[in-house]
Specification:
The complex is a heterodimer of chains A (113) and B (114).
Chain A: E1 5-7, E2 10-13, E3 19-24, E4 31-37, E5 44-50, E6 53-56, E7 65-68, E8 75-79, E9 88-95, E10 103-104, E11 108-112
Parallel strand pairs in A: 2-11
Antiparallel strand pairs in A: 1-3, 3-8, 4-5, 4-9, 5-6, 7-8, 9-10, 9-11
Chain B: E1 3-6, E2 11-14, E3 19-21, E4 23-26, E5 32-38, E6 44-50, E7 56-59, E8 62-65, E9 75-77, E10 86-93, E11 102-104, E12 108-113
Parallel strand pairs in B: 2-12
Antiparallel strand pairs in B: 1-4, 3-9, 5-6, 5-10, 7-8, 8-9, 10-11, 10-12
The chains are: A mainly beta (113), B mainly beta (114).
């Protein structure tokens, strides 16, 4: 069974530029999560989708971050414009509906200069 | 709000030593508890979990027991190997269904020397 796929794996941009990350969850997993993991800290939830609807985006900085999951499968997370403090690893995870176990992708490491 | 506190790292052990990584939590209700492991260059993988008080999760020689009275979920292994070198994250889930958000500790880096 294929795992959660993410791309790109690494991205370097300058502040005020925009960037987008892509995630393809495990087949059949209706729930999709985006986490931000700053160096030395644990992952922090940014947004949770159930199919193509948003369940929780309370910690998403909506002035610069946006995410979508238009067809209820893959998802895109965008940052525009980026700030230095956005440097982090962005993790995507998925789970079956109602299940507590989440499966994580390898992450996208973002460096904002 | 809900939170998880892990012991500070890094932890350096010799091969075959005993491992304990402490984890305590603060939560309303009865969360499920997890240990995730992150090997170098890889994503987080579920190591073990426990869903109710006194449950013991185990996998790959690692164990952790859900202690409601001490709000703890310490990770233990009797004899570590070099291949166990990784970052270990304790986490809790504040509910199943559509609100199964995970709250993570800061992680503990383990290095095992031959």
């Amino acid at each position: 069974e294929a795992g959660v796929a993410q791309s790109p794996r690494y991205k370097i941009i300058e502040k005020r530029q925009s960037v987008a990350f892509w995630c393809n969850p495990i087949s059949g997993h209706a729930t999709l999560y985006w986490y931000q993991q700053i160096l030395g800290q644990g992952p922090k939830l940014l947004i949770q989708f159930q199919n193509n609807g948003v369940v929780d985006d309370s910690q998403l900085p909506k002035d610069r971050f946006s995410a979508e999951r238009l067809k209820g499968v893959d998802s895109t997370l965008k940052i525009q414009p980026a700030k230095l403090e956005d440097s982090a690893v962005y993790l995507c995870a998925s789970s079956l509906p109602g299940a507590e176990t989440q499966y994580f992708g390898p992450g996208t490491r973002l460096l904002v200069l | 709000g809900n939170s998880v506190t892990q012991m500070e790292g890094p932890v350096t052990l010799s091969e075959e030593a005993f491992l304990t990584i402490n984890c305590t939590y603060t939560a309303t209700g009865y969360p499920s508890l997890f240990w995730y492991v992150q090997y170098p260059g890889e994503g987080l993988q579920l190591l073990l979990k426990a869903t109710k008080a006194d449950d013991k999760g185990s996998n790959k020689g690692f164990e952790a027991t859900y202690r409601k009275e001490t709000t703890s979920f310490h990770l233990e292994k009797g004899s570590v190997q070099v291949s166990d070198s990784a970052v270990y994250f304790c986490a809790l889930s504040d509910g199943g269904g559509s609100q199964g958000n995970l709250i993570f500790g800061k992680g503990t880096k383990l290095s095992v020397k031959p």
